[in-house]
Amino acid sequence: MEINERTHAVIPSPNFDDRALPISMVVLHYTEMQPMERALGKLINPDSGVSAHYIISEYGVVTQLVPEAKRAWHAGVSYWRGIKDVNSASIGIELDHPGHSAAQRDFKDAQFEALVPLLARIVEQYDIPRANVVGHSDVAPMRKIDPGEFFPWDRLAEYKLCLPRPEKFDKGTPFDNEGAFILGLERFGYDITEGRKAIEAFERRWRPEKIEGKPDAQLGAILWHLLLERDRGDAR
Predict the structure, then answer these.
(1) What is the enclosing helix (H) or strand (E) of 231?
(2) Where are the beta strands (DSSP E) in 11-151?
(3) What is the pLDDT along the chain (236 residues), one digit of tens a residue?
(4) Active-site residues: which are they?
(5) Of 30, 124, 128, 164, which sees the most CB atoms within 10 A?
(6) Which helix (H) or strand (E) segment is 225 a member of?
(7) Which residues, in sequence order, are CB contacts of 192 under 8 Å at separation 6+?
């Protein structure tokens, strides 16, 4: 795929304010509204109280709604790695997709091919760590489940735009009970106010084929690998 960013349209949303933090994150969402015009209408409606910096159609049309320098209202009540005002620290990208409200299906190739160059430019421009390219469910596990199990994180990782899923578990897991695992999630960056929801969010991101809301040896090994990589400085 050629890395050639293109923004096809600008439709300004009034739903933004000033940032209080430097940009250090990207949060990916799905719209869960069909057709896309419904989602777009909501994101630019001054009465809705929501917005995003970009929305990408299933056909790969990239529309900017809020300038990157401004704080779009996409994450809501959220938290990631000590940051409580995720909106101030992030760029929000909405992906046109029916989500869990319809039969689950893959994201379209044209959409992914439009996301990659946009995200690549943002990550480079703001020096965003791969660990801070996250889903809405990562930063708001009590409320959100998007972009969902069908989002191709593995493909995104091939471009080094997010962390790859660990595949080697030779270090095993030190988490001998659920409480220890949840504390590990907190150390990695999750809000653990509701522990089971945090576990589900972790599964949704790192083991989407099996979401049960309870840790097992495989899930513990994945988390332990990620923590070790971060502590070694390899998970930036």
Answers:
(1) helix 217-232
(2) 16-18, 25-30, 54-56, 62-64, 70-72, 90-95, 133-135
(3) 445 677 889 999 999 999 999 999 999 999 998 899 999 999 999 999 999 999 999 999 999 999 999 999 999 999 999 999 999 999 999 999 999 876 678 999 999 999 999 999 999 999 999 999 999 999 999 999 999 999 999 999 999 999 999 988 877 899 999 999 999 999 999 999 999 999 999 999 999 999 999 999 999 999 999 999 988 887 77
(4) 94
(5) 30
(6) helix 217-232
(7) 182, 183, 185, 186, 198
Tokens of 55: 């929305």
**Parallel/antiparallel/unpaired status of strands 70-72 and 25-30:** unpaired
CB 189 within 8 A of CB 129: no
Whole-number Å distance between alpha carbons of 52 and 13 = 8
Q: Which CATH number does 9-158 carry?
A: 3.40.80.10
Cα(24)–Cα(43) distance, integer angstroms: 23
pTM of the model as a whole: 0.95
DSSP-derived secondary structure for 129-189: -GGGEEEHHHH-TTT---S-TTS-HHHHHHTTSSPPPP---TT-----SHHHHHHHHHHHT
- Residues 36 and 30: their CA atoms lie apart, in Å, by 11
Helix or strand holding residue 69 (H, E): none
Pairing state of beta strands 54-56 and 62-64? Answer: antiparallel
* Alpha carbon distances (Å) from 215 to 31, 163, 198, 230: 29, 20, 11, 20
| Domain limits, the chain | 9-158, 178-230
Three-state secondary structure call for residue 25: strand
Closest C-alpha to 227, from 188, 176, 186:
188
